[in-house]
Amino acid sequence: MRCVAALPAARLAAARALPATAAPLCALLIAPPPTLGPPASSSSAASLPANCASSISLRPDSKFTQQELPACKPLLTPGIVIGAFSLIGIVFVPIGLASLSASQDIVELIDRYDAECVSANDKVGFIQDTKTDKACTRKITVPKPMKGPIHVYYQLENFYQNHRRYVKSRNDKQLRMKESASLVTNCEPEATSQDGSPIVPCGLIAWSLFNDTYSFSLNKKAVEVNKKNIAWDSDKNTKFGSDVFPSNFQKGGLIGGAKLNEKLPLSQQEDLIVWMRTAALPTFRKLYGRIETDISASDEITVVIQNNYNTYSFGGTKALVLSTTSWIGGRNNSIGVAYVAIGGICLLLAMGFVVLYVLKPRTLGDPSYLSWNKENPDNPN
Predict the structure, then answer these.
(1) What's a Pfam family this protein contains (predicted)?
(2) Residues 70-114 pLDDT 10s
(3) pLDDT at residue 62, as a whole number
């Protein structure tokens, strides 16, 4: 006995009551449930109003929404797997080797000076004494030729610029807009001066601005340090206003770091802009400037350092870094090592699959091997 499904009266009535724009719903209402027999008679569907048959579908006409975009799902045969791993290895290993070579060609000089440029007896007292001359002369010998521009960085260790309270200690509206100079939210304890006037820029980040200075000379001739364009253009143009000028800055009882030129807008105070882009790790470098001239091998650079910044009270360290650059930026072996490691692993996997395929070949899977597709003598259908 075969089952024949007829359109229920309730569903037919609901379909007749729909407006002309409800074609998809009409289709759902009149569609019969799956049956084991032949399709139902079309007499019941013919009695529906014409709007169900002639209305335009409201289904979004997009291949993306209908999941009809072209797609490729390769069958993971031994050839495809071995080829994919081999291709990744062949591409990644040369990139990694090129990156390592470029990194090794970079000349980088690091001179830690915090221990030598301070009195051993009372380091914190030495830094806090405003009457003490803090000049310190260092000599750096160049082992390899350095082609300009040579980037000058200061490096700090054990300085947690990523501390939540420190990161929030600023007011971005105040930095951008002149009319928001009185906004000092989140800036305590460096929010207002002793007379209650707002500090611009406010907050602990600006207050702790790095204030060590470096003067360079080569063969008894002064070497100029270019301090222009050391900050990101996006920061200068969007985060710091060209009509916002410093006021009441570093005029309290406790001086934190460098002072600012009150005649220059914040958008031109590039040392401040670089400093206020907080670092993610406790050891970081920030760009101080650039030396545009070339330096030959075996030359001796004389650096006069004004050791003003107090890293001694929290156990931090300071270092001066001179570095050339290449197409990968500064010295960074991590990228090259990562590429070589991933490429090498992929090549090893490819060779392993080749050996496995040769020693223990296996018939490729096919749906006909599934248990429910095999011939069943009890149920041949």
Answers:
(1) CDC50
(2) 888 777 888 889 999 999 999 999 999 999 999 999 999 999 999
(3) 84
Does residue 301 form part of some domain? Answer: yes
Question: Span 271-288, mean pLDDT?
Answer: 96
Give the Å distances, CA to CA, from 59 to 17, 21, 31, 146: 20, 11, 17, 66
Residues 178, 299 within the same domain: yes
> Percentage of the chain with pLDDT > 70?
81
Around Cβ 24, how many Cβ atoms within 10 Å?
A: 14
Q: Does residue 153 lie in a domain region?
A: yes
CA 308/CA 212 separation, integer angstroms = 5
- Token pair for residue 345? 């692993």
Distance CA 317, CA 112 (A): 8
pLDDT digits 0-9 by tens, 124-154: 888 888 788 889 999 999 999 999 899 999 9
Quick one: which of 282, 321, 326 has its CA closest to 153? Answer: 321
Region of 326 (left: φ > 0; alpha: ψ -120 to 50; beta: rest) is beta
- Give me the count of residues in the chain: 381
Q: Are 277 and 232 a contacting pair, CB within 8 Å?
A: yes
The answer to whether residue 67 is domain-embedded is no
Neighbours of 294 (CB within 10 A): 13
Question: Residue ranges of the alpha helices (H) in the chain?
Answer: 9-16, 23-30, 43-46, 50-54, 78-105, 123-128, 164-168, 172-176, 204-207, 233-234, 270-276, 333-359
- What is the pLDDT averaged over residues 147-169? 95
Q: Which domain holds residue 100?
A: 76-106+332-361
Please list, residue by residue across 269-289, b when 16 or more beta carbons sit within 10 angstroms of its beta carbon and e when fewer do: bbbbbbbbeeeeeeebbbbbb
Are 119 and 227 part of one and the same domain?
yes
Which pLDDT does position 254 carry in this prediction?
A: 73
pLDDT digits (tens, 9 = 90+) for 303-344: 999 999 999 989 999 999 999 999 989 899 999 999 999 999
Query: Looking at the domain assignment, is residue 30 inside a domain?
Result: yes
Helix (H) or strand (E) holding 289: strand 284-291
d(CA 315, CA 119): 15
